[in-house]
Amino acid sequence: MTEEITDIWVYLATSPLLWLTTTLAVFVFSTWLNQRLGGSPALHPVLLSMGLLIVILLATGTDYDTYFEGAQFVHFMLGPATVALAIPLYYHRRQIRAWLGPLLVAGVVGASVAALSAIAVGSLLGGGDVSLMSLAPKSVTTPIAMGVAEQLGGLPSLTAALVLLTGSLGCLMAPGLIRVLRIRDDAVKGFAMGLTAHGLGTAQAFSISATAGAFAGLGLSLAGLITAFLLPLLITWLPLG
Q1: Which of 72, 93, 95, 135 has the smallest number of Cβ neighbours within 10 A?
Q2: Whole-model pTM?
Q3: What's the pLDDT tens digit per position in 144-155?
Q4: Residues 6 or more apart whose Cβ sits within 8 Å of residue 137
Q5: Residue 138 gets which letter from DSSP?
């Protein structure tokens, strides 16, 4: 048994699979730790995994390119995972069809307010145009946000960091806001979390119920579409530059 484990370690240590294996192991450990600590949103498994991986990379002197060479399969699976959100949406298609009008209005208003309020706050704090364009798409899923930021003249890498920060804050604040606002409908909880906190909010919504997760996936999708199509138009009306 010991010899087999040694052989596996020797193989992983000499191939890019080392960092894929490390990423998956860290996430499993973070999920276990989150559950042992009561499932607090402040200790979300994604946040814990990020912190642990940063510590491991710094401790081993591993640069990001080397890490990404092994862990890029996780990045590749983001696309299929997003498409897979269509499955729970299919099971709730009758409820979505009945609420289509209010959902679209809420989606347009929510995505617009998220982008414009970020630009307003960034502008008041003295941010330049590049920073503001990087900040504007912070509430949508990373692949879309980076693409929108690049089209607007922002920095995609900065946008990716802001997207993670937005999702983290969304997961932290959502439970308290839901209690304060006395929201009892799981569909409303999930839609709001997906619309404002993208993938991280959607993952947390699935811990509430399957219905909350399904509507969070809808909110995430609508936020991405609306931001990609409307944000470039809204930007042209703003007094920037």
Answers
A1: 93
A2: 0.76
A3: 888 888 888 888
A4: 115, 144, 145, 148, 149, 152, 154, 159, 163, 227, 231
A5: T
